[in-house]
Amino acid sequence: MKYILEGHEMKHAAEEMLLHLLPTETLTRVETEQDGDICISALTEQDGCLCAAARVTIGGETHAGSIPVLTEGLDELSRKRAVSTAVKTSIYDAVVPFLEEPPVWGSLTGVRPAKLARGLVERGKTRGEAAEILRSSFHVSPERTALTIRAAATAMELDQEIGPDDISLYVGIPFCPSRCYYCSFVSSTTAQSGALIEPYLETLCGEIRETAALVRQAGKRVQSIYIGGGTPTTLSAEQLERLTAALADSFDLSALREYTVEAGRPDTITPEKLRVLKNAGVGRVSINPQSMEDSVLAAIGRKHAAADVLRAFDEARQAGFREINMDVIAGLTGDTPETFAHTIDTLIGLAPENITVHTLAIKRGADLTDKAAAAAQHETVSRMLDYAYHALPQAGYGPYYLYRQKFMAGGYENVGWCRPGTECFYNVTMMEELQTILSLGAGGVSKRVDRDTGWIERANNPKYPLEYIRAADRLANGKKKLLFSKK
Ligand code: SF4
């Protein structure tokens, strides 16, 4: 589809909304009106009033939308946001008549819907009023509105438990035994990069020691640790022992309230590794089947069967883990609503404390066939999520955090469900940007959150393991700036 911007340069906003509603389109910006499918997004000013308008033609049919932009009394940044929202909403109004049904998230395109709801409540709205704004201004469905308000409430509760000097740590291990076909993480297989694991671990332990010294100097307290990846349990038991010892020896962990390790792939889990983790004080592990159907697991490139998940889960319980998360993905190749329901039922039968239901995200740069296939999955994914969202509450799970990614099949979301009192603190604080999180390892993005103003500053580590190892002597610089800058 071609698109034209008139009177504004909100290219990102316009493209984001068009792809949110028409995910299979390839967008091309043009300067003049042309035949064929086109969107014209304009910002006009008349008698001091701004108005965002859109006209969309698809298959010879045309629809339009227009929204006044209220900018009175706004500072420059807030004005830009208001214009961006109006541009998006006008495009939404013009495109929706072409769709069989409106998206469940309406015109909301952001990654963190609960943060938006929380902001409304913090600015004086009641939860009911915040819900009404989501429904009427953003056209969010009643079910997604309820999920959002629940997640916002959990975030507000946990927010009360964060002191001004509390921070969390993320430690990344970007290695996996094989690559899942849908993977969008920076993760190398052991076959490709196994030789890098040792030097990577050595560099990481160095970064841990340097970061710990900075954290001590800055007077910060570590509230939670999350070792993710990749698949951290790709490391051997001895390497895991070295990693956890480096953390325990370097940081003061006396205020630690949660310690998670992603033991994502059951084919990497052994009783010995679980023992090492347990002895190191890890309380929460994530064992991620994604599906309990062997044919689906084979189709997505996992080198394990559903029976391995059952074995790993049992071993984790035997090792004493009382907080286990299990991830599933709706929309995987070869999965059907019936087999997905079987996966959900099997997990409920195991009774882990957390079950996280993801929706397949199409990789950035995926080809058109992938995008079209994922878009065609819309109906299937909708049925899968409907099943999960009814079965989980009946089994005693409640939603506690959610986020969206771009290019998700059907424009849906990822939702963390938990038994009461087992919310993952790190997941909530990270997703809702409640506190400073220092990220160690390749691809780590540290964020300093100013809890008074909401201002966020970032410092990025090199993305790939080799680059990271080569940058060993300057890894602490970004974190030093975050911890000690005056802003
Ligand atoms: S286990 Fe996770 S990080 Fe590893 S390849 Fe699969 S999706 Fe990617």
From TrEMBL:
Domain of life: Bacteria
Keyword Iron-sulfur part of the UniProt annotation: yes
Sample GO molecular function, one term: coproporphyrinogen dehydrogenase activity
UniProt cross-references to SMART domains, sorted A to Z: Elp3
CDD domains: Radical_SAM
EC number: 1.3.98.3
Keywords, comma-separated and alphabetical: Iron, Iron-sulfur, Metal-binding, Oxidoreductase, S-adenosyl-L-methionine
Domain named Radical SAM core: residues: 161-388
InterPro entries found in the cross-reference section: Aldolase_TIM, Coproporphyrinogen-III_oxidase, Elp3/MiaA/NifB-like_rSAM, HemZ, rSAM, rSAM_sf
UniProt xrefs under PANTHER family: COPROPORPHYRINIGEN III OXIDASE, OXYGEN-INDEPENDENT COPROPORPHYRINOGEN-III OXIDASE-LIKE PROTEIN HEMZ
Protein name in UniProt: Coproporphyrinogen dehydrogenase HemZ
Native organism: Agathobaculum hominis
Top-level taxonomy: Bacteria, Bacillati, Bacillota, Clostridia, Eubacteriales
Gene for this chain: hemZ
